[in-house]
Write a structure and sequence with these properties.
The strands form two sheets. The protein has a five-stranded mixed beta sheet, sandwiched between helices. It is α/β, with parallel strands linked by helices and 239 residues long. It is 28% helix and 26% strand.
Length: 239
């Protein structure tokens, strides 16, 4: 059997990404890094991804969403859309962590593979998302995709991750890693560019959840914000 047909939605950052998979095979992928475009592009991408694969909404066995952490607005749009599809089509809702997805997707990167061949079990994966100023959302994973340290919001300083870097080599990536390069200037810290959140990285983590029937409650599921949302107040009054 080919496996379940699942629609994957990734909107945790400025990237709007939609993929369709059948089992562990990607059928289509559409994504854009145009900022603040999720509300405009997401439904179009969903329709296009189905059309590209010659599938229809009624064919879906499940819908999956990247649950965060990340942008409050982006997560709300992605989760609301996924919940709406799950409810209307009466199919399971699945969710996987954004950083977990990035760690899974990084395993296909040539530089990550090269580091893994050199350092073996001493290598850890650390996907990072920018949380403004000198703060990042970060998680640490082994090469077997096991959690080494839970996801947290970290303020980056010279002593950040010192204990981990003393005993392990760490591969840092994601849009939060750029601000860390100059500060985490250690021989065991390796930085890799262009590994970003993508719906294609959700396929394997979501498939594992589907097989184990780890479905979300459509009525009560909420994104993993990690930090409380704080609305900004304009400095100038608008007439």
């Amino acid at each position: 059997m080919a496996g379940p047909l699942i629609l994957h939605i990734e909107t945790a950052t400025n990237i709007c990404s939609v993929a369709l998979s059948e089992g562990d095979r990607q059928l289509s992928l559409i994504e854009s890094s145009q900022d603040r475009s999720h509300a405009t592009l997401l439904n179009t991408f969903i329709r296009q991804s189905l059309e590209d694969a010659g599938k229809h909404l009624k064919n879906l066995d499940g819908v999956a969403v990247s649950k965060g952490p990340g942008s409050y607005t982006g997560l709300r749009i992605g989760v609301s859309t996924a919940k709406g599809l799950s409810y209307a089509l009466e199919i399971p809702l699945l969710a996987s962590g954004t950083l977990e997805n990035m760690a899974s997707g990084s395993l296909s990167n040539d530089l990550v593979r090269s580091l893994a061949a050199t350092y073996g079990d001493q290598l850890l994966l650390c996907p990072m998302l920018d949380a403004r100023r000198m703060e990042v959302y970060a998680g640490f994973y082994t090469m077997k995709k096991e959690i080494f340290r839970e996801v947290s919001a970290d303020i980056i300083a010279e002593e950040s991750y010192r204990e981990i870097l003393e005993s392990h080599h760490v591969c840092f990536f994601g849009n939060g890693a750029d601000k860390c390069k100059a500060i985490l200037d250690q021989s065991n810290a390796h930085f890799i560019d262009e590994i970003n959140p993508s719906a294609t990285s959700m396929i394997i983590p979501v498939l594992e959840r589907y097989k184990q029937k780890q479905f979300e409650d459509v009525a009560y599921f909420e994104p993993f914000y990690l930090k409380d949302f704080i609305a900004t107040i304009p400095k100038k009054k608008l007439l």
